[in-house]
Design goal:
Helix content is 45%, strand content 13%. The protein has four helices and three strands, in the order ααβαβαβ.
């Protein structure tokens, strides 16, 4: 959805963003070693880019919590991540959800 509004492809966006290139190298390495990773961003657009350009392309499972997430969906995603389910090794969050009092102790990176 987001990429359709941008003039570049996912590959071009990766080439233009050092943050995305870094995450593209770092996330698969951490996940392959069995780590559970939290990725925070101030805004949802960067989370959209991380989803589309990295996680979906590389087949890395993730859960996402942002201001658009409903209360029940948010709680379920946190539970899934806390259980260290192998299909959710990455949790994407906006910094604004920090005020909801999550305890994400399953993360080790």
């Amino acid at each position: 959805r987001l990429l359709s509004t941008l003039p570049q492809s996912a590959e071009e966006l990766l080439q233009q963003s050092a943050k995305l290139r870094c995450l593209q190298a770092l996330l698969p390495a951490l996940v392959s070693r069995g780590h559970y990773v939290l990725v925070f961003s101030q805004g949802t657009r960067m989370l959209d880019l991380i989803e589309v350009c990295i996680l979906r392309r590389l087949g890395i499972g993730y859960a996402r919590v942002d201001g658009q997430s409903g209360v029940e969906a948010r709680a379920q995603r946190v539970r899934d991540f806390q259980r260290r389910r192998p299909e959710f090794p990455v949790m994407l969050l906006t910094t604004s959800v920090g005020g909801f009092g999550f305890k994400l102790t399953a993360a080790d990176r």
